[in-house]
Every structure is written in structure tokens, then in C-alpha cells.
Amino acid sequence: MSDEKRNEPPDGGFEEMMRQLRDAFGGSGPVFAGPPGAAPARPPGSKENVESGDGRSALSQVEEFSLTPKDIKAHLDRFVIGQDEAKKALAIAVCDHYHHARHFHEVAKVDEARARTVEFAKQNVLITGPTGVGKTYLVKHVAELVGVPFVKADATKFSETGYVGGDVDDLVRELVRRADGDIDLAEHGIIYIDEIDKLASRAGGGGVRDVSGRGVQTTLLKLMEETEVAARNPMDMASQMSALMEMQRGGGPTRQNINTRHILFIVSGAFTGLEKVVSERMRRGAIGFGAAVREVPEGAESLRQAETQDFIEFGFEAEFIGRLPVRVVCDPLAVDDLYRILRDSEGSLLRQYEREFEAYGLRVRFTEFGMRRIAELAANEQTGARGLIGICERLFRPFKFELPGSGAGELVVDERFFADPDAVLRECLKEADSQQARQALSSLGGFSRDFRDKTGIELVFPMETALTLSEAATARTLTVLQFCRHVFRDFEYALPLAARQSSEKKFTVPPEAVSDTSGWLSRVVAEACRADAPSEAGSGDKAGRKDEPDSGAAEDGGNGKEEGA
User: Fold this and answer.
1) Which run of H or of E encompasses 455?
2) Are strands 257-259 and 264-269 parallel, antiparallel or unpaired?
3) Which of 93, 113, 109, 255 is nearest to 187 (CA)?
4) 344 vs 81, 130, 242, 389, CA distance in Å?
5) What angle do CA 40, 42, 45 make, to 5 degrees?
């Protein structure tokens, strides 16, 4: 049940649990210290975590932050197509946030007490827009550029603290893990919560306690402003055991809390239905005598007109939505946008497919027509850039199954690919067969030369036989030459015997010789022997025929004499 409480720690809290474990394992020695010789785990915030390999602080990118909004937008342009207004708003908010963090550290180096008095209104960001338009992609690449840890989570998995479900405080602890235990760096990370619109809770809940809507909003309020979060989850036994191990090894407690003052929170959602709230408000404002007539926007444009009261009516707490002052709207992606994503984005899905086919030795080439056609099909899915994945998976599934290992050289995604994909696949396989046979013939040439040098007999391999040999060799993970030396090892004994019987010096090897080598050799030798027997009888006939002219000549001569007589 959602109202079920989590397991409570032992009476007396962590200290009592630690005392009990000491008693259980004897004395004050280290508990669960790991195998002999194992290096002790580095506690969060230790010097090894704080410094990078070149001796600079891992926090130096924040302390030396000097990017401008144009720098950030230029970086985002490499990966996200369109959404220019969203990029600008996000870039400004990120620059303001980290310039303030830099100023805070500069003041703190001189006077820590004065630094704590520096006022700053956090510019947490709310991103709205349909699915697949690049909301997560924008935030991820901003975090990579700034060089701070980044945590993404779905709002739907959280519940109010103390109830079954995820705890929002765990997001802050996850930042520490992403920062390799460096709490100072984690305190300047970015937390991104998707599907935040699912936390909206409309009035009229019938008195049922909402532990995953308003409760989570209330819990997030403190994090989004400034609060202290325990580095170890008091309800998580694994965390408490890890803390115990560190204290036993290090002889003292490590840093216990994480401050959220400089953590930037970015939330996003599709906000389906919010446009209706905005439209209704604008229509109400346009009713009455003397009211100015104005056009009511629709779709993404209506989201740009959303005000704080609209979000409150949608189901958000006023205090919660007030802590998200920067609001960004991402537009739906049209066909041209999807086409440019495929063609220009550094993270284009086509690069992924090129690498996947290349792993099988196959080159795939996308024409302008092919890219635009994929974009048109994806636009019909109405799932943004995610539609590209589904369309490409369906289009290339038969090719990914049939072509790997076939020896095909190139797949061209053009008009014919979409008009008759089955015919294109058959042609690729046919071309693969020809290419495979040509490669096999090249290897068979070497085998034939070696056999001729050894026996004086020439072997002829037709194209069909070469293809059969290639397929058989591939099935046994051998080269064609290795396969021939293994399967045709009896050729050098049987074929010279057939050659002596028939005086033949050239033999054509048919495909059946690959599957039934012994049977084929037996038939060749038998036919050679049968051919030799008529040859001997024929020589006797010829001898007899030699005598016949003599006798005939003699008869003629006698006749002549007789006639002459």
C-alpha cells in the first residue's frame, strides 16, 4: 500500500546499531573491512576525489566558469536541431547560475562568512513541450559542457518521504555517486526531473492522501531552494553499513551533509491539457463589453502564454511553481526538423546505423531522398525524434537479419529502397553471392596452382562450386583455402589414378564434390576405368580393320588377275 511506512532503524539510531555490530563481531576492530590487502574505500570528499589527474581541483571548471550564453547555444546547436528560443533561455539560466557559483567561491576564498550572505535567486528551469523534441538531450549536453555531474529521473517514481517509493533526497545522493564521491563537485551538479506534469494533483481528491503528487512537490520545495541533505539515507541499511565501514577504517566520520544551494534543478513534461487551461483563461478575459478582441493561441503557442496561475490551476502548488522562474517551451518537430536531425546533428541516428552495418562489413549510404522519406514517415508517428528510431528499426530489420555474413558490400537507401524493399534485399543478396563467389575463386586459384604443381593435374572450379565452397567454409568458420585443404585432401590420390586411366589432365569440380567428396571421386575413377576398357577393344578392332584392306586389296588383286586372265 502507498501509505505503508518504511522500516524504522533500531532504537537509538545509527550509534546504537554501530555498537551492536561491534559487539557482534568482537571488539572495536574493523567491521566488514574487505579482503586482506584491499585498498580502503575513499570516503566522500576525500582528497583523492577532489583532485583530478593533473592536480587541479575537480571543481575548477565551476570556479573558473567563463562561458557565455552564445557559447552554450553554439554547443547545443551541434546536437539539437531547432528549439532556438529554448536553447537561448536555457543557456542564459545556466550561465547566470554558474557565474553566481563562481562569484560565491571567489568571495569565500577571502571571507567565508561574507560569502554566506551573498543573495541569489536560483533560476531553476521548467521545460514544456511534447515528447521527443529534445528536452532531455538539451539538459544532458549542457551538463557535459559545464563539466558537472548530471542526474536524470522520472517524477512518477517518487513518493513523499517516509512512504513506499523513491525518495527525492536520493537524487542529491546520486549526484555524489556520479561525482565519484566528491561532495563539493556534487553540490554544483544538475538534477533533471522528467514527467513533472504527472505530479500535478487536481482538487477534489476525495480526502485520499496524495503521497506522489502534492507530497513530492512539498518535499522538492526545500531541495530546489537551499537545504541540507544527509549523505547517507537513514532508512537505507546498505548506506548505513557503508558509513559504518568508512568510520571503522578511517577512525572518524566523514562529511555528513550535502548542501543544495548551488544545485541547478531542471524539470520538464509534456503538460498535456495545460493549453486548454490557458485557452479558457484567455477566452474569459476576452468576454464582456469593451473587452479587447484577441485571437486565442493553440498548441505550443498557447504554452508560451502560460502564466503561474495556469500552472496552479493545472494542479501545482503555488510555492512549487514559484521556484521554477525560467520557463522554456519546446516546439513540436516538423518534417524539415526531423530531416535536419538526420542530416546535420552530431548525434544523428544514421551514424548509429552506419556503425551497426559497418560491424558486419557492410556500407550503408543514405541519399537525400532516403533521409527525407524517413523524416516524413517519422513525422506521422507524432512522437518527435523518437519516431525516427521506430521507423528505422522497421525499415532495416530484414536487412540487418539477412545481410550480415552474406558478403554484401553496400546498401543504398534511395527511391527503390522504399518502393520495393524486398527486391532491393534480393539484389543485395545476389550481389553478395557474386562477390562471395569471386572472393572464393581467388582463393581457389591458389589451391589449383598448388595441386597442379604437385600432381600435374589442373582443377577447374565453376562459379556455382565456388559459392558452395564459400558458404560451407563460412559455416565452419574456416577460410576457403583451409576448407579445401581439409575436404579435398583425397584429391591428390584419386585424381592421378583417374588421370592414368583416362589420360585426362583437367578435371572440373562440381558443387556435389563439396557435399559428397568421396562419392564424387569414386564416380570419377570408375568412369575413367570404363573409358579405358572400350579404348583397348577399339585398338583390336582397328588392328582387324588394318588387315581387312590388305585382304581386300588381295581379293581385288586376285580379281584383277582373274579378269585380266
Assistant:
1) helix 421-455
2) unpaired
3) 255
4) 8, 22, 47, 16
5) 155
Category of 271 on φ-ψ map: left (φ > 0), alpha (ψ -120 to 50) or beta:
left
Question: Distance between CA 126 and CA 328 in Å, rounded?
Answer: 6
Distance CA 212, CA 2 (A): 9
| 3-state DSSP percent of the chain in helix, strand and coil, to 5 | 60, 10, 35
Q: Nine-digit cell at 279?
A: 485557452
Q: Is 399 exposed, middle or buried (0-12, 13-18, 19+ CB in 10 A)?
A: buried
Q: Name the residue among 90, 454, 30, 501 with its Cα closest to residue 268.
A: 90
Q: Is 404 exposed, middle or buried (0-12, 13-18, 19+ CB in 10 A)?
A: middle
Strands 257-259 and 228-230: antiparallel
Quote the crossing angle between the two packed helices 386-402 and 421-455, to the nearest 10°.
Answer: 30
pLDDT per residue rounded down to tens, the chain (565 residues): 444 444 444 445 555 555 555 554 444 433 333 333 333 334 444 444 444 444 456 678 888 888 999 999 999 999 988 899 999 999 999 999 999 989 888 888 888 888 777 878 888 999 998 888 888 889 999 999 998 999 998 888 876 544 445 678 888 989 999 998 888 899 999 999 998 998 886 544 443 445 456 778 888 888 888 888 888 776 655 555 665 666 666 555 466 789 998 999 999 998 988 988 888 888 876 555 555 545 656 666 778 888 999 999 998 989 999 999 999 999 899 999 999 999 999 889 999 999 999 988 889 999 999 999 999 999 999 898 999 999 999 999 999 998 887 777 889 999 999 999 999 999 888 877 776 667 777 888 888 988 999 999 999 988 888 888 888 887 888 888 888 988 998 998 899 988 888 888 899 999 999 989 999 999 998 988 887 665 444 444 444 443 444 433 333 444 443 333 2
| Size (the chain), residues | 565
Identity of the amino acid at 430: K
- List Cβ neighbours of 13 (8 Å cut-off, separation of 6 or more): 234
- The C-alpha angle 487, 488, 490, rounded to 5 degrees, equals 115
Helix (H), strand (E) at residue 243: helix 237-250
